[in-house]
Amino acid sequence: MIAALLAGLVFFSLFAGQLPPLWLAVICLLAVLSFLLVGGHHHDSVLTMDVYARRSRLCRENAALKAAGSLALLILCICSSSPLPPLCLFAFLSVVTVAAGGIKPREYFSLLGLPAVFLLLSGLTLLWDFYQKLPEEAVLSLPFFGGWLAVVPAAQSLGMLVLSRALGAVSCLYFLSLSTPLPELLQVLRRVHIPAIVVELAVLIYRYIFILLATFRDMKDSAASRLGYRGLKRSLHTTGLVYGGLLANSFRRAGACFDAMESRCYTGQIAFLTEKKKVTAKVFCLLVLPLAGMLASVLLGF
Amino acid sequence: MKELLQFEQVSYHYDSGGEREALFPLSVRLCEGEKIAVLGSNGAGKSTFFLLANGVLSPRSGTIFLNGEPVGKKEKQRMQLRRSVGLVFQDPDVQLLAGTVEEEISFGPMNLGLPEAEVRRRVEMAIDSLGLTEYRSRGPQYLSGGEKRRVAIADVLAMEPQIMLLDEPSSNLDPAGRQLLEDTLEALHQKGMALVVATHDVDFAWRWADRILVFHSGRLERDDKPEAVFADEELLSRCGLEQPLLWKVAKALKIPVPKNPEELADYQIGRKTE
What we know:
Oligomer: heterodimer
Number of helices of chain A: 11
Strand content of chain B: 15-25%
Distance between the termini of chain B: 42 Å
Number of strands of chain A: 3
Strand order of the largest sheet of chain B: 6-7-8-3-9-10
CATH superfamily of the largest domain in chain B: P-loop containing nucleotide triphosphate hydrolases
Order of helices and strands of chain A: HHHHHHEEEHHHHH
Strand order of the largest sheet of chain A: 1-3-2
């Protein structure tokens, strides 16, 4: 609900003075409605993404290629000097993730809601600025503690550029993380000689997120079933107890897990047998197309 | 029968006093192809026994012999113990590590430093033996309790140990999962692997084991055939155990104790026709 209002406000500030009032109203309404429609997302972000990635049809493709492609697209997207190419990239990659990957559109947009709030908030601060004297070119203004909060056209075009770049970048990262399970990404990191200790820490963290989350959920549920969250004061107290218990539990777990690894002859190097995934023409085309487009747009300075 | 593992006056205690139990001097021999059940109440010393046998802990005093050779305290020698004695932990979640079942099972063989083709062969063998083919590219963390348990057993099986220790493998399993587990144990036994199962389930111990170790407060109280262990009511009540259901039934009916319900039915029919 708040996100929807925020979206309306940002779109209004973005296009005020540049579009006829009717169009402006339509765009703002569309923004609010789209947020209201896909809103109410309830997911455990990290885990949901991993589940979607495993389900995606693009999961069978070579992870290194996907990672390299998205990284290149990400860099080109940030280098872009006008809002149009990143927006096209966003549209293209969203279609790829949804259509080629088989993620449901609703799920995809619901996941976008998460970074969208951050984007909108930062967009708001980019657009509105504080002035002692009202600038002549201001398209929107509000009196504020003896000065003015105003939106000027320069801020509008900057906001537009930053927001579109950010949106393009998010779509690159979503393309990667919604088509590649985390363990495969870690394998890629290992191949490009990221220090073993970093990768192994990531492997362990990935694994134990699940255990910690499950433990946390169990503890919270059991506290709730004993009315531990009745009233603000008691809620705070219970939350503290749950986190404390979680810490104690984690230590005990860590000991047990280390024993289990040692019992399988662990000597300080985590290694798994990995299935090699071939580079296919399909994913190659899917990546080369936007790469060529983005490269051309950056070089030609669109 | 060839002797695989021997404990000679082995003892252990935890420095912290901790939640885990100490073990008083213990002498025991495990031989090829045996089916041994380890009984005892919580905190009786079963888990410590397992961790010592697997080389995760090293004894405070006494010696462990593997295939007749004493195992020293050096890391390399303990590694030999871990190689030959596999341990399946009670909670599969502490054991599972990787992103897919296949990778997970490869962790042990990779640690053994085997060539890739051999690792692949062992992983395939373990997947086949435990019927995990359809789960091979799934994430182990998303599997159900019984499936996780099978993956945990496959983990250890892929290391091709001579003895497999299982710590309460039937806890948290539904009846179907338990049946599947027993079938799995039978298949492993057919392969000639020595199996040691810690359990609270006396019915299972009676049905399955051909030797029972009873632990109580860190001591090995009894090492005997199931018939002898369950006949000793004083021992059972002292160690917080009970007789299997079939024993109680047989006692009530005043008949010899059958090994399974089918035998009981045969006996009843025999008696009626007399």
